[in-house]
From TrEMBL:
Family: Belongs to the PMP-22/EMP/MP20 family.
Oxidoreductase as UniProt keyword: no
TM region(s), chain numbering: 63-83, 95-116, 139-163
Name by which UniProt lists this protein: Epithelial membrane protein 2
Gene3D superfamilies: 1.20.140.150
Localization of this protein: Apical cell membrane; Cytoplasm, Perinuclear region; Golgi apparatus membrane; Membrane raft
GO biological process: cell adhesion; positive regulation of integrin-mediated signaling pathway; regulation of cell-matrix adhesion
Subunit structure and binding partners: Interacts with PTK2; regulates PTK2 activation and localization. Interacts with ITGB3; regulates the levels of the heterodimer ITGA5-ITGB3 integrin surface expression. Interacts with P2RX7 (via C-terminus). Interacts with ITGB1; the interaction may be direct or indirect and ITGB1 has a heterodimer form.
GO CC term (a single one): apical plasma membrane
Length: 167
């Protein structure tokens, strides 16, 4: 049982780390000489432009920012609730509250990555000065980590739903 508990804790911490990295790092859309994410666009690793309200499609990026931050916060809260429930629940009860919060985190990261996937082309095309420089790119590792974090949070949410407190 201790091995299973250690695995679940490590898996949850890994999910939170993936969410932190994918939210913070500047590699959602990358090319030869640029990096872009939901916070800024950098050319030649030195010339960075913050994405603000003058950026066309800023409200779309704000939705991605907000849901990624919310997903990270919910993942951390679900871990704290798991630790509290570990000591408070009676034997045989399920970690339902932890599961619900973790699945809400999963939903938030899925929404953020889906919005970015759907609107990325529009975001770059609407900003003509950046589009010429960023049109030839690919999804970066932070974007891929967001989808991996989705799978991890979904899996851990289901694990908590199934898991019962045993001796």
């Amino acid at each position: 049982m201790l091995v299973l508990l250690a695995f679940i804790i490590i898996f949850h911490i890994t999910s939170a780390a993936l969410l932190f990295i994918s939210t913070i790092d500047n590699a959602w859309w990358v090319g030869e000489d640029f990096f872009a994410d939901v916070w800024r666009v950098c050319f030649n690793s030195t010339n960075c432009t913050e994405i603000n309200d003058t950026f066309q499609g800023y409200s779309t990026l704000q939705a991605v920012q907000a849901t990624m931050i919310l997903s990270t916060i919910l993942c951390c809260i679900s871990f704290l609730i798991f630790v509290l429930q570990l000591f408070r629940l009676k034997q045989g009860e399920r970690f339902v509250l932890t599961s619900i919060i973790q699945l809400m985190s999963c939903l938030c990261v899925m929404i953020a990555a889906s919005i970015y996937t759907d609107r990325r082309e529009d975001l770059h095309r609407d900003n003509a000065d950046l589009y010429a420089l960023t049109s030839e790119g690919t999804y970066g590792y932070a974007f891929i980590l967001a989808w991996v974090a989705f799978a991890c949070t979904f899996t851990s949410g289901l694990m908590y739903l199934i898991l019962r407190k045993r001796k």
